Amino acid sequence: MTIAQVAQRTGLTAHTLRYYERTGLMLEPPPRGDNGHRRYTERDADWIALLTRLRASGMPIAAMRRYAELARRGRDSYVARKELLEAHRADMIAKIEQLRSDLEIVDYKIDLYSRRIRGEE
């Protein structure tokens, strides 16, 4: 696949894909075609999809880079990768709980204004 095809498939820009490669987030740099353009594989596209989800879930770039480094090591890094993902999961759960708490306050204020608009307060 070309960089444009991968960009369309993943929703990322070509600039972001080049950034992922430049900063060590890819498992390996995508091979180049005879014309020098990047040629992405299905494996690359799947990896980029994972990176996209990790980033969307709030994982810092540094942690994503660490995860990629570990993945390049293969099977001997399973424990470390699992621990990294468990720590990220714990962070995500904490953020979800904070959002739930924040939502309660917003809901309270909406209810308060609804009652005031109806003249109940």
From TrEMBL:
Pfam family, one: MerR_1
Domain HTH merR-type: 1-70
UniProt xrefs under SUPFAM superfamilies: Putative DNA-binding domain (SSF46955)
Statement: the UniProt record of this protein carries the keyword DNA-binding: yes
Keyword list, A-Z: DNA-binding
InterPro entries for this protein: DNA-bd_dom_put_sf (IPR009061), MerR-type_HTH_dom (IPR000551), MerR_fam (IPR047057)
GO MF annotation: an example: DNA-binding transcription factor activity
Protein name: DNA-binding transcriptional regulator, MerR family
